[in-house]
Here is the input.
Amino acid sequence: MSGPGGMVTKRDQRRESRRDQYQRRQAERQAERQRQIRQQRIKRYGLIGGGIIIVLLLALGISQFVIRNNSSPQPGLNPHPATGQVVDGLKCLPQQGGALHIHQYLDLYVNGQQQTVPPGTGIVDSANCLYPLHVHDNEPNIIHNESDQQNVTFTLGQFFDIWGVNLSSSQVGGYKVDSAHKLVIKLIDKSGKVTTYTGNPHDLQLSDEETIYLLYNSPNVALKPFVDWQNLNGQ
Here is the structure.
């Protein structure tokens, strides 16, 4: 106190006011510095986090690219059945003629595993029609041949085209034929005689009560003729 008797003078008040203002400005500057430090930290952490995310996304994209390019699609029969359009000159009709009605049993093996020729092949419910070559319900692997012409001859390739499965000397469905994966065709006629067919399977002409073995990479299959011809649908 600078006044007489320790009284507070105006000079003291002004000095006190200046000190308070100085301390307040110091506190404000300190608070501003702390705010700037926090913002810098947030920005720095954000940049680091964003960089980490970008790196992770790049790594994920590269791994997916590697997986896609190193995994080949698994082969299969890959059927795309006909839906009522004309196939190899064969029409899908509400009913087929009765002048010709014969059958074959198709025994297809891939890598030693028997494949089912599905019931309903060649029968298009959505179009209310069926092809001259078709497979009835509850009769897998039995190909029915029906026509209004007695002397017509169908081929195995026509049936496969209706089924929507590729068939040739070099391919069965998605399976490629090569020196390590051979395609052998064995035929058993109604008398039980076994022959080997060496032509293009697509051109194989169908005969009545014949068992057809298509053996892709399946050398150890025991051949057995189908004999239950008298109990088929539509006889």
About this structure: The chain has two domains: 7-70, 100-230. DSSP finds two helices and twelve strands in the chain. The first strand starts at residue 100 and ends at 110. The two ends are 130 Å apart (CA to CA).
